[in-house]
Amino acid sequence: MNSTIQAIRGMNDILPEQIPRWQQFESIIRDWVAAYGYNEIRTPIVEQTGLFKRAIGEITDIVEKEMYSFADALNGEALSLRPEGTAACVRAVIQHNLLYQSPQRLWYSGPMFRHERPQKGRYRQFHQVGVESLGYADPDMDAEHLVMTADLWRRLGLSGIALELNTLGDTDARTRYRARLIAYLEQHRDQLDDDAKRRLYTNPLRILDSKNPAMQDMADAAPKLYDDLDDAAKTHFDTVQTRLRAHGIEYRINPRLVRGLDYYNYTVFEWVSDQLGAQGTVCAGGRYDSLIEQIGGKPAPACGYALGIERLLTLMDSAGIPLPARQLDAYVVHNGDIASPYAWQLAHSLRQSGLNIILHCGGGNFKAQMKKADASGARFACIIGDDEARTETLTLKPLRCASEQTKCTLNQAIILLKSRD
Ligand code: ATP
Ligand code: MG
């Protein structure tokens, strides 16, 4: 028995009927990043595994258990499908010396790969748009990122996405805090689950954002990192908040927000929707001033964030955001020995004038072809029989309203088809 081959679990086909939503989203994204002066960068989907280990950190969900890693069959090199976009973006900026001239506002978009348990809003291949500002130490850049994401929700037509904000301070603050936190967690060792016990001395901050209901009260009552911040970190955080208030952007400070990746310092944030169940975070990021140096570049501050495209599209679908109408102007039906070659020429001329045309393929009588024309969604059927071919005319029949059909020349047809209202 032949078994059929299926796509890999958690990796989805995006079918033609879903494409209009994706394209609508992508077109809004392009206008949005342009409005803020960000330039696109495209990096490979496969990188050396070492890049992600260094950038994301060894004791993280991603590096410990979510990466698709393999040895190159030819030379044994350790490679991984990218689980996120920041590491490769920073690698490329260092490799091509992009920070030499000026700081960089960059964005990227594309598929990411993580070996997680597939469920609604959580896939093994998913798509992100990411934004990175490299070479900026000023809290105004953290604020710019938050203001621009708030603006994106408006452009997408989405409401009800809430901002959660925190600061992780600098390395010294986190070292001081780590010690206090470990002491606290040791006192509550009986309440820690297996993951938390494993991370107690390797990545204790991560225990704070555990979703395990049994640990919530204990995590809520944990000491707060804010008390370990120095004045510079507090001022930075205050400036970000002042900008947010000036722009009327509401936020909640969440002291347990620490993010899953090791590279963050100072500002961290998540935008969360209450309409997506457990997979509610649609955007996350923050400042990562030590990452560039960690990957081998000359030290430079930076911050950035990534959006989960699938989760945002789900929100757009359930909010009923209308899709742009499909722009198929005419479906050319043709029958007859003289008609068909003429129909080919005519379809070509219509396309050259900027119209979107399907030329019927596969024969059949006019009635059967008209059914196809109707199902295509085209605004007009363009009917060509031997009679039209001989007189170099064509018949245009509106398919979406009750108007009469008209017989006309090619030029008249172009004018009529281009009046798209
Ligand atoms: P989560 O806590 O949901 O696992 P994360 O902290 O691992 O998220 P990030 O690495 O910050 O996620 O990625 C940024 C965004 O990308 C997330 O907020 C989410 O919208 C999206 N995202 C992350 N992982 C997935 C996935 N497996 N499937 C779909 N979207 C995802
Ligand atoms: Mg995750």
Ends apart, CA distance between termini = 55 Å
Strand line-up of the largest beta sheet: 1-5-6-11-10-9-7-8
Low-confidence stretches: none
The global form is elongated
- SSE-based structural type: alpha+beta
Ligand list: adenosine-5'-triphosphate, magnesium ion
Strand-residue fraction?
15-25%
Mean pLDDT reading: 94
- Helix share, percent: 25-40%
Per DSSP, the total helix count is: 15
List keywords for this structure.
elongated; binds adenosine-5'-triphosphate; 20% strand; 5-stranded mixed sheet; binds magnesium ion; 421 residues; alpha+beta; 8-stranded mixed sheet
Structural account:
It is a single chain. The chain is an alpha+beta fold and 421 residues long. It is built from 15 helices and 16 strands. It has helices at residues 19-35, 49-56, 61-66, 86-95, 139-156, 171-187, 194-199, 216-220, 231-246, 291-294, 309-318, 339-352, 366-376, 386-391, 410-418, and strands at 39-40, 46-48, 69-71, 78-81, 104-113, 125-134, 161-167, 252-253, 265-273, 281-287, 302-308, 330-334, 357-359, 380-384, 394-398, 406-408. The strands form three sheets. An eight-stranded mixed beta sheet has the order 1-5-6-11-10-9-7-8, with helices on both faces. The chain has a five-stranded mixed beta sheet with strand order 13-12-14-15-16, with helices on both faces. It has a three-stranded antiparallel beta sheet with strand order 2-4-3. Helix 12 links the parallel strand 12 (330-334) and strand 13 (357-359). The radius of gyration is 28 Å and the shape is elongated. The model has no long low-confidence stretch (mean pLDDT 94). The chain binds adenosine-5'-triphosphate and magnesium ion (MG). The site of adenosine-5'-triphosphate has 18 residues, from strand 6, strand 10, strand 11 and helix 11.
